[in-house]
């Protein structure tokens, strides 16, 4: 279960109480575990972290709580001391490339493109290599960037609407544009 939060900049105490603390007492219906994932855990307020503390100290045997944070230093020491901290680093580009070529038989030119856009994320590189629409989306983004100075607002809107026909969300499309500018 992904823990949602109402405010974009913080995870509040009520979010934790309602979605984790009040929910952990209910045993799982399917499977042996209930898994809670709190993305952007560093955005938890101190009160929210303290509310989670009791559950972290004595979780039911069927509960797994995963806190995803960009910086563990932003978490309270009492939280950090009760967690197993795993530092995840980006996979080097050459390893990603080898993996795609050897494990998924991706042609080397496509592996290079997928690696550039994945920025060290193995799951993203794999997904891009298997996405039939990725080349079309990439070409659409590059075409938009090359021709944007000659386009009016309606043309830009139409070009972005064309992208929505593919299986990609706007954030991924913007990532492609960002990476293109980075590489240029």
Structural class by SSE content: mainly alpha
- Low-confidence stretches are none
Helix content: 40-55%
Approximately what portion of the residues adopt beta-strand conformation? Answer: 5-15%
Number of helices: 9
- Measured distance between first and last alpha carbons: 40 Å
Q: Number of DSSP strands? A: 2
- Give the SSE string: HEHEHHHHHHH
Q: Overall 3D geometry? A: elongated
What's the rounded overall pLDDT mean? 88
The largest sheet is: 2 strands, parallel
Strand order of the largest sheet: 1-2
Cα-atom radius of gyration = 21 Å
Structural account:
There is one protein chain. This protein has helices at residues 13-21, 46-57, 77-80, 93-104, 108-118, 122-130, 134-147, 153-163, 170-183; strands at 34-38, 63-67. The radius of gyration is 21 Å and the shape is elongated. The chain has a two-stranded parallel ribbon. The chain has nine helices and two strands. α2 (46-57) links the parallel β1 and β2. The longest helix has 14 residues, at 134-147. By secondary structure, the protein is mainly α. The protein starts with 12 loop residues before the first helix and ends with a helix. The relative contact order is 0.08. α1 (13-21) runs parallel beside α2, α4 crosses α5 (108-118) and α5 (108-118) packs across α6.
